[in-house]
Design goal:
heterotrimer, A alpha+beta (165), B alpha+beta (751), C alpha+beta (352), B: alpha+beta, Aldehyde Oxidoreductase, domain 4, 15 helices, C: 352 residues, alpha+beta, Uridine Diphospho-n-acetylenolpyruvylglucosamine Reductase, domain 2, five-stranded antiparallel beta sheet, four-stranded antiparallel beta sheet, 13 helices, 27% helix
């Protein structure tokens, strides 16, 4: 039995036929759509390396069955930069050395974008640390990650204010 | 921007300004955009998925597998078992040298640890292969598991660590203890830990006749080529490994592991490219771990607080079928001045996978015990822990009497203590609370790690267009090789960083040895430096021998290579660009190879170690026992710093591993079955972001003229040491409760 | 993960019909079910995807101040609903102390009620477990029991319920609304989860095909909003299950405790309502001594199920602390570290 679903991924519409309902969004992205930026660190929702924005909200792609998300709008790390122009979160991760090996980084960045969008942490470092605690980093880049999210939050806040003015 | 001048041969100098710059990572954009290609991101045409079925017993044998059920699953292409596994040229249990580790490659039906591979299912999809593996539903004949440090017969291994004697002694420890005014004796226990890089071990293997192409994260590609070549009976040159990025290694990707060989075997069996990625739970078995330890420390000091004796006796564990013995006791050899030091090791053999080098192997468990004991000894003497360490500061390496090639530990103590505010620390425990009533404690530890070098090669090319190419099969597991080596390469050729193309991460480049032992930057850096020297020497020879050159005849005074030009040393206004020199000589490019190894003479004369001092603040809920590390300050001296930005991150990472060691991570093993109960990332706790609210690393200047040409010591592992003990000591200082079993369980705080 | 049929019903009635077939499991956020399927601890033959069902995604205020939470409301959305968090702050705090932000964005409140134990022996398909295999012995007994139950356990099962959310729901007398083959019914929260007894496979009163459609918090539950806290002790600062947790609500009248609500998490197969403790506090002036007495009463029937006697004392201490925190008043804003003992850490060293 096959299942037809439609997903919008990084702005592009994908009409897909799934031969297997077991396929997770993560495996769909990585193994079937060649979007390998999202990483599989645990495949159990315990590390956050697979974090994507699903209908605007950060979620673990490894625990989402693709078949259940027909119609969803997905943003992955591949869709974050505008051409060669990095998203402020991406640029801040580089500036603050918010990674070492880089394996958890796509998930960290998607989580950070989600966190900023949620508007719950603001520029409180403690809330940012708590809000980023669903993303493990074995290299121990947490200080840089927090600094990067803080920096990007401030920048995006200022940009919002400029836009509003 | 300051020029850096290195001696390069008798006459030529090279000047560059890249070394020492806090540059951001050159691979940064790739990593933040998801374009950095890790092994499992590859997907050659026709690729199949291989999934390992692993044992769920610790010891015994596999009696049956339901092959029919697995094969009947749609999409399953093959099931590889001992019966049909392609032949190997070498017994996986063969061992020709101590660091050739035995593997489980389906050579028989035996199970010798939990999560050992017992079959491999290969299928068209990941989902089919995964379920196929589950459907094998093995039946076992199971034998009682040998679990824990008291679970098997104790023996003394012939050697520990990397070939160290299991027993070492200087002076008379018994006399030293007898004459001591103050003595302590304590037993410290550390638990089993798993490397758990975020990237699970992965391989995409593709046979092309007798040629093998693989994408796999490797900390040592040339060694891997040798190991694979031996197993398959093919020439190492026929094996091409790509490993541009590792999603962390921490030692677990140093030796090519059994499961990765199974991926290659699977590809051979089905005649198609195969991807095999370990499930997280499969990281708890066949790819190494840190063995538990139990260390009994006796220490004595005289009335003034001078150590009279240190005795460390450690029990460790290896697997039942192979030898890897951590040497935690040996940390006592190098740190504190003491006339009598005795270290010894014993071991048991357990039904686990073979332990392996894991970030600061030996040093990390040894340090947390020794630094705790020093804290206890200082208290027994009534002396502040920092003052006590200064009283016992080793001006010469205690175990050998050799001078240190450099040792800025005193500066580390000074700068770290000042930054932390250590002077305000009350001596007694349980003296400080914060405004919310949380107990506050301050502790410190000394960090130390040997400055090692292995062997590496590099090849430098200078092109007529003025650009340089530096090639070496180096490995970047997050430490920043792509950036730091490019910086060294630029200075080695007297070029701007922008004029350098740096190639690494592929086995067809010059052998860069192994990224381990915190030695990669020093070793490969030396090779790059040497290769650059070779090219500049050739270029200088061309110019100086050419009557048309402004540098003609400069041979006696030599040249300076800088910004893509050679200058006469005696008249820097006389210079020529590299391109001009090559063009006149009719050459498109010149090249040279270089090598980096330890200078045996220097090694014989000097003890070489990096050092540091770590200060920790913890808060402990006095009622509920929950612990948080609220502040970490580390000051480290590790010779020349190639890139402070990256080095600081390495220190942070090590310090967080220290916090994890003391408070969080350990494998929970069922004492009856020997199975790990938390083989995941949900219950095997490593720190999360909220666990690390404040961390600082101070880079202390240190000039080391002996350790290697560039004066580099390693930074990758040292920061675990010192930190782990500092946090343990801070927990005592907060609560007055001395816990000697790590990680510290919060219930121990409940009083 | 085993193969399964995937069906996506359009209505609750269709869902219940499909869910009543043997081998069916309801799929909503998937954060627990998909994980358990991956490790083989659950192998349903049919997934009935209820995540698209209409009408179950709203937070609906009822007359008199009660609130009905649709079963498909996401944990994060409920916690961040300002009006809800004002009325039921301990519920919001509990939600935000659970799992990770990513998981809270996916997990539904209905699914939260049905999440399975984190007992390692339940998750390890090689271990004997009466939850996975009815009638099988409990291999956790005699094994690693640090996280196991100290209340309400049986020789058949010593697992604990891992939910944070359910703890304040138990304390606040929530009601679970259910649709099933026999129609709709409501179950008092405290009666929803059942203790293992002889049949640990049965974890709730739901019968085959029954679907949780909503959770109602009664109006009087909002009466505790001024003095409500959730406190959770865990092995790392965030992203860890509770060793022990407590939800406390107090309602004061004329300086006395008019009514107290206390429930514990991490101690039993269900969120553990501590009614004996509540009764001791009701009508009394709050004092350290009285809190101690109440805490002792809450754990009066507790027995270690292994090497976990510490959880009994810890649970008592958590009750005492949570009572003090609740008495001090619900904070204006949820703390940066929800439910953490370090939540209010303000720094500033004070030498004793």
């Amino acid at each position: 039995m096959t299942h037809s679903i439609t997903l919008t991924i990084n702005g592009a519409r994908h009409d897909l036929t799934l031969d297997d309902p077991r396929v997770t969004l993560l495996d769909l992205l990585r193994e079937r759509l060649d979007l390998t930026g999202s990483k599989k660190g645990c495949d159990r929702g315990q590390c956050g390396a697979c974090t994507i924005l699903l209908d605007g909200r950060r979620q673990n792609a490894c625990l989402a069955l693709a078949v259940s998300h027909d119609g969803a709008d997905i943003l992955t790390i591949e869709g974050v930069a505008q051409g060669d122009v990095l998203h402020p979160v991406q640029a801040a991760f580089i500036a603050h050395d918010g990674f070492q090996c880089g394996f958890c980084t796509p998930g960290q960045i998607m989580s950070a974008i989600g966190l900023i969008g949620e508007g719950q942490a603001g520029t409180d470092p403690e809330r940012i640390r708590e809000g980023m605690s669903g993303n493990l980093c074995r290299c121990g880049a947490y200080a840089g990650i927090t600094a990067a999210v803080l920096d990007a939050s401030v920048q995006l806040e200022q940009a919002d204010r400029r836009d509003a003015a | 921007m300051s020029d850096t001048i290195f001696p390069a041969g008798p006459v030529h100098l090279r000047q560059g300004s890249s070394i020492g710059q806090p540059l951001t990572r050159r691979d940064g954009v790739l990593k933040v955009t998801g374009q950095a290609d890790f092994a499992a991101d590859h997907h050659p045409d026709g690729m199949l998925y291989a999934v390992i079925a692993h044992s769920r017993i610790a010891r015994g044998r596999v009696v049956s597998l339901d092959l029919d059920a697995a094969r009947a699953h749609p999409g399953v292409v093959a099931v590889m078992t001992p019966k049909n596994r392609p032949a190997l040229a070498l017994d996986p249990d063969a061992k020709f040298h101590p660091f050739m580790f035995r593997m489980d490659l389906l050579q028989n039906d035996r199970v010798r640890y939990p999560h050992q591979a017992i079959a491999v299912v290969i299928a068209e999809t990941f989902e089919a292969a995964t379920e196929g593996a589950a459907l094998l539903a093995p039946h076992y004949e199971s034998e009682p598991a040998r679990v824990g440090l008291d679970g098997a017969e104790v023996f003394v291994p012939a050697t520990v660590g990397v070939g160290n004697p299991s027993r070492t002694e200087i002076g008379d420890v018994i006399a030293g203890l007898a004459q001591a005014a103050h003595r302590i004796e304590a037993v410290y226990e550390t638990d089993t830990q798993y490397h758990n890089p975020m990237e699970p071990h992965a391989i995409v293997a593709h046979w092309d006749g007798d040629k093998l192409h693989i994408d796999t994260p490797s900390q040592g590609m040339a060694m891997a080529q040798g190991r694979i070549g031996g197993l398959f009976g093919i020439s190492p040159e026929n094996i091409h490994i790509r490993s541009p990025f590792l999603g962390g290694g921490f030692g677990s990707k140093g030796m090519f592991s059994g499961p990765m060989v199974l991926g290659i075997l699977a590809a051979r069996l089905v005649g198609r490219p195969v991807k095999l990625v370990l499930k997280r739970e499969q990281m708890y078995g066949p790819v190494g771990h840190r063995a538990p330890s139990r260390q009994t420390i006796r220490m004595g000091a005289d009335r003034e607080g001078r150590l009279t004796a240190i005795e460390v006796h450690a029990r460790t564990a290896s697997s039942t079928f192979d030898d890897f013995f951590e040497a935690p006791a040996d940390v006592a050899h190098t740190l504190y001045a003491c006339p009598a030091i005795a270290t010894s090791h014993e071991a048991v053999r357990l039904d686990t996978g073979t332990p392996l080098f894991m970030r600061a192997p030996g040093e990390a468990p040894g340090s947390i015990a020794l630094e705790s004991a020093i804290d206890e000894m200082a208290l027994a003497c009534g002396i502040d822990p920092l003052a006590f360490r200064l009283i016992n500061y080793a001006e010469f390496e205690p175990i050998s009497g050799r001078p240190f090639s450099s040792k800025a530990l005193r500066e580390c103590y000074d700068q770290g203590a000042a930054r932390f505010g250590w002077a305000d620390r009350p001596m007694a425990a349980r003296q400080m609370r914060d405004a919310d009533g949380m107990l506050v404690g301050w502790g410190m530890g000394t960090a130390t790690f040997p400055a090692l070098m292995f062997a590496a090669k590099a090849r430098a090319v200078l092109r007529r267009d003025g650009h340089g190419v530096m090639e070496t099969g180096a490995h970047d597991m997050g430490q920043g090789a792509w950036t730091a080596f490019a910086q060294i390469a630029a200075d080695s050729l007297g070029l701007d960083l922008g004029a350098i193309e740096f190639k690494a991460g592929s086995s067809d480049l010059p052998d860069a040895g192994i990224a381990g032992g915190s030695a990669h930057t020093a070793t490969v850096g030396a090779a790059i430096h040497d290769a650059g020297a070779g090219v500049i020497a050739k270029l200088a020879d061309l110019a100086m021998a050419d009557p048309r050159s402004l540098l003609h005849g400069a041979g006696n005074v030599g040249v300076i290579a800088r910004n893509g030009r050679l200058h006469r040393r005696d008249d820097e206004s006389r210079s020529e660009s590299y391109g001009e020199i090559l063009a006149r000589a009719g050459l498109d490019a010149i090249d040279a190879t270089g090598s980096g190894t330890m200078d045996p003479a220097a090694q014989q004369h000097y003890a070489m170690h990096a050092h540091g001092a770590v200060f920790a603040e913890v808060k402990v809920d006095p009622m509920l026992g929950q612990i948080r590390v609220t502040r970490l300050v580390g000051a480290f001296a590790a010779g020349r710093i190639i890139n402070p930005h990256l080095v600081r991150s390495q220190y942070y990472g090590g310090m967080i591993w220290g916090a994890s060691f003391t408070l969080h991570e350990h494998a929970i093993i069922d004492r009856r079955s020997g199975r790990p109960l938390n083989a995941d990332l949900g219950e095997y706790h490593i720190p999360v972001n909220a666990d690390i609210p404040s961390i600082e690393a101070i880079l202390v200047d240190e000039h080391d003229p002996f350790v290697n040409a560039l004066g580099i010591k390693g930074v990758g592992e040292i920061a675990i040491t010192g930190t782990a003990g500092a946090i343990a000591n801070a927990v005592w200082h907060a609560t007055g409760i001395r816990v000697r079993q790590f990680p510290i369980a919060l219930e121990r705080m409940l009083g | 993960m085993n193969r399964f049929d995937y069906v996506r019903p359009a209505t609750i009635a269709e869902a219940v019909k499909a869910g009543s077939l043997p081998g069916s499991a309801y799929l909503a956020g998937g954060t627990n079910l998909v994980d358990l399927m991956k490790i083989g601890a659950m192998r349903p033959e049919r997934l009935v995807d209820v995540s698209h069902l209409p009408g179950l995604g709203a937070i609906e205020w009822l007359e008199g101040g009660a609130v009905r939470i649709g079963a498909l409301v996401r944990n994060a959305d409920l916690a961040h609903d300002a009006a809800f968090a004002r009325s039921f702050p301990a519920v919001a705090e509990a939600l935000l102390s659970g799992a990770s932000p990513q998981l809270r964005n996916a997990a539904t409140v209905g699914g939260n009620l049905l999440q399975r134990t984190r007992c390692a022996y339940f998750q390890d398909v090689a271990a004997s477990c009466g939850k996975r295999t009815p009638g099988a012995a409990c291999e956790a007994i005699g094994g690693d029991t640090r996280l196991a139950a100290v209340l309400g356990w049986s020789e058949r099962c010593i697992a604990t319920n891992p939910s944070d959310f359910c703890v304040p729901l138990a304390a606040l007398d929530a009601v679970v609304e259910i649709h099933g083959p026999a129609g709709a019914r409501s179950v008092a929260f405290d009666a929803f989860h059942v203790l293992p007894g002889d049949d640990p496979a049965r974890e709730t009163v739901l019968s085959a095909g029954e679907l949780v459609t909503s959770i109602v918090l009664p109006a009087e539950a909002a009466g505790f909003s001024g003095h409500s806290r959730y406190l959770k002790v865990r092995d790392r600062t965030s992203y860890a299950f509770a060793l022990v947790s407590a939800a406390v609500g107090l309602r004061f009248e004329h300086g006395r405790i008019a009514e107290a609500r206390i429930a514990l998490g991490g101690v039993a197969a269900k969120p553990w309502r501590a009614r004996a403790a509540e009764e001791i506090l009701a009508g009394a002036h709050l004092s350290d001594a009285l809190c101690g007495v109440a805490a002792e009463a809450a754990l009066a029937e507790a027995t270690p199920s292994g090497d976990n006697a510490f959880k009994i004392g810890l649970a008592q201490r958590i009750i005492v602390r949570a009572l003090a925190m609740a008495a001090a008043g619900t904070p204006q804003h949820l703390p940066a570290l929800p439910a953490s003992p370090f939540a209010s850490a303000t720094g500033g060293l004070v030498y004793v």
